[in-house]
From TrEMBL:
Belongs to the ornithine cyclodeaminase/mu-crystallin family. PANTHER family: KETIMINE REDUCTASE MU-CRYSTALLIN. InterPro entries: NAD(P)-bd_dom_sf (IPR036291), ODC_Mu_crystall (IPR003462), ODC_N (IPR023401). The lineage of its organism: Bacteria, Pseudomonadati, Pseudomonadota, Alphaproteobacteria, Hyphomicrobiales. GO terms for cellular component: cytoplasm. Gene3D superfamilies: NAD(P)-binding Rossmann-like Domain (3.40.50.720), ornithine cyclodeaminase, domain 1 (3.30.1780.10). This is Ornithine cyclodeaminase.
């Protein structure tokens, strides 16, 4: 009997934070990767499982574990583990630190390990922006954004990339946070960004409203009366900050993945799911179905539309894959022997 063939060597690519920064990935590259992954999901060419949570009970935070696989042009599976520790600013760390692992979808061999802290921020901002591309009014010119840490920067940057707003308002609980955030955005976007003293002056009458607050417990800070007819509203804080009546004024309710939105203990519309205000019956579509052309997006300017995204592993995988491919072209990243 002949001896079994020797296993071929397996190599993985490791990309740290400095490598990710060296890629200098553009806004258009980010948006293209995320829009493509949403279309793949909408066509049923992906597998996604609801995120899992691990609460270490050692601090004010938890870990999210996201898993999925993308077919189509990408053909990759992945798992991301991301911490969400809201008081990290006190020790000079971002609230979210993450690692993404990519695998061969057909044989399970590992392909890459990437610092995913920046990926998390970029892909979340891109999902917000792609949602607005299909669901906000084309002439939207005023953005109201609550929240100044984590994913907030990429929400505003990528939304402005698509809409070129006349007015951008931002708010967060701490004055130093919102003032610093507004200053950074003003410098990077080349336009004035207004730091508002409260929620109402930030979001009332805005064409696009994004709620990315960092509350310790659910509290109805975003009032339904402040939302103008025809607005596009994106609430996605871990703890609910919206008034219970918010869904009552919506023409369409859209989510990124109903499977993960309908379960778990966290999320801005958790109470609405539990009360039946958001259900299979009231849900208009998943975002991927709209991007893939299977369900309509915005159909007229009078529609007031809500988009709740919990965060897709598929977005992490798609953006990680795009970074991996760009790194290969540019010679960025470290090749490590795995087996």
């Amino acid at each position: 009997m002949s001896a079994p063939a020797a296993m071929p060597p397996i190599y993985i690519t490791y990309m740290n934070r400095l490598d990710i920064e060296a890629l200098a990935i553009t806004d258009d590259e980010i948006l293209a990767a995320i829009e493509g992954s949403l279309a793949t999901q909408g066509r049923g060419e992906a597998v996604i499982e609801p995120r899992m949570h691990l609460e270490p009970k050692a601090a004010n935070g938890h870990f999210n574990v996201l898993r999925g696989a993308l077919g189509g042009e990408i053909d990759a599976a992945g798992v991301k583990v991301v911490g969400d520790f809201v008081e990290n600013y006190k020790i000079g760390l971002p609230s979210e630190l993450a690692v993404l692992t990519l695998f061969d979808r057909f044989n399970g061999s590992p392909k890459a390990i990437l610092d995913a802290s920046g990926i998390t921020d970029m892909r979340t901002g891109a999902v917000t922006a792609i949602g607005a591309k299909y669901l906000a009014r084309k002439g939207s010119k005023v953005l109201g954004h609550v929240g100044a840490r984590g994913t907030a920067y990429w929400n505003v940057r990528l939304l402005d990339h698509l809409f070129d707003f006349d007015e951008i308002r931002v708010h967060s609980r701490r004055p130093e946070s919102r003032d610093g955030f507004a200053a950074k955005l003003s410098a990077d976007l080349g336009k004035r960004v207004i730091a508002t003293p409260d929620w109402r002056s930030c979001v009332e009458g805005a064409d696009i409203v994004v709620e990315a607050s960092r509350l310790d417990r659910p509290e109805p800070m975003l009032k339904t009366d402040w939302i103008k007819k025809g607005a596009f509203v994106v609430p996605y804080g871990t703890m609910s900050a919206v008034e219970f009546s918010l869904t009552d004024i919506m023409s369409k309710l859209v989510v990124d993945d109903w499977g993960q939105c309908k379960g778990g203990k966290f999320g801005s519309l958790r109470a609405h799911v539990e009360a039946g205000k958001l259900s299979e019956a009231t849900l208009h579509a998943e975002m991927g179905q709209i991007v893939a052309g299977l369900k309509p997006g915005r159909e007229n300017d009078d529609e007031t539309i809500l988009f709740w995204h919990r965060g897709l592993s598929l977005s992490d995988i798609a953006l990680g894959h795009a970074m991996l491919e760009k790194g290969k072209r540019l010679g960025i990243g470290q090749r490590l022997r795995f087996a």
